[in-house]
Design brief:
Layout (H helix, E strand, L loop, with lengths): L1 H7 L1 H16 L5 H30 L3 H26 L9 H16 L3 E3 L5 E3 L5 H19 L5 H24 L1 H26 L11 H7 L7 E9 L2 H8 L1 H17 L5 E5 L4 E7 L3 H16 L5 E7 L7 H29 L1
Antiparallel strand pairs: 1-2, 3-5, 3-6, 4-5
Helix pairs in contact: 2-3, 2-8, 3-4, 3-8, 4-5, 4-6, 6-7, 7-8, 10-11, 11-12
Length: about 350
Amino acid sequence: MFLEYIIQNWALILIATAFLVSLKITGFQDKGSVKRMYLLIVGVFLLSVLVFAEFSLADIGGYLTLRTVLMAVRYSATPFVVVMILYTLQKKTGRFVFIPALALTVINFISIFNGIAFSLAEDGTLQRGPLGYLPYIVAGLYGVFLIYQLYKKSNRLYTEIVPIAFLGLAFASGVFLPFIYGRNYSHIFCTTIMIALFVYYVFSIHQLSKKDPLTGVLNLQAFYDDSTVNPEDITALVSMDMNGLKKINDTLGHAAGDEALIALTACFRSELNSRQAIYRIGGDEFVVICRNTTESEVTDLIGRIQKKISGTKYSSSIGYSYSGGKTKAINEMLMESDQNMYAEKAKYYSDARKDRRRR
């Protein structure tokens, strides 16, 4: 039976081994995330063993009580695997996200006695109760929430959206394909999830070299790289610089300064679309590359950002350069947008001094 398990799950074993090796040799991942990933890999492995045991008993026949218990564990474990993925990939997710999975576990084990979610007939066939679809609904909702969170915190670039969509496809298959292929899909569910996780993990490691660790937006090197890709599509650059960061650092400390930068970044990126990408190119300096964007769209973007920032206790100076249908070098556009931004900053500090004199 052990050999049979190895044969059925050989792809899972290979992917999990590669995953574990990658976690071991990737030293710049934070320890908390690595520990959660280890637990996740172990959890998927244990689920694969449980699935194998349950269906092996089904092939033998009988053992209805034991099979019912294993089913309760399996139907409970699947949402737990998905919520553990959410808990691992979204570092700031609180433990409250486990509450629906825990409630489902209680329902599944109660079902052993009253069949409220599932039961086995005398011939061993599955019978769904009134809450029979609840495990799939809970797992599906967890998957939707995870994909939404990943998309929300992404930079809306094609290279980031594709891996998120791939992960979403894996979750969707886990929710819908069991109704089409039954137990045949259950045998490959764990392998499907492990492959999706490993692909997303490799993508994440690749993206770390292009992202600013504090704010999560793209960094200076990514700006240099992306500005050389189809430069004829770049119609505008928007330069943004925080006002008063030095004062915050000097009076409240650098932790407060970091908090301010994170808050401003959230304002910046929340208003961007798929044709606009933001980069942190200095301490408090940001640039947005706008592709195939009209000047009115650029000014609308700046207006929305300024409105968003006005709802915080911080401020930022913003300037832009528009190509106007002409081919402009990136350096030329960056210099022009910076000049406009610095003119805005000079006006901000001039107005601030006037306000202090009035007091």
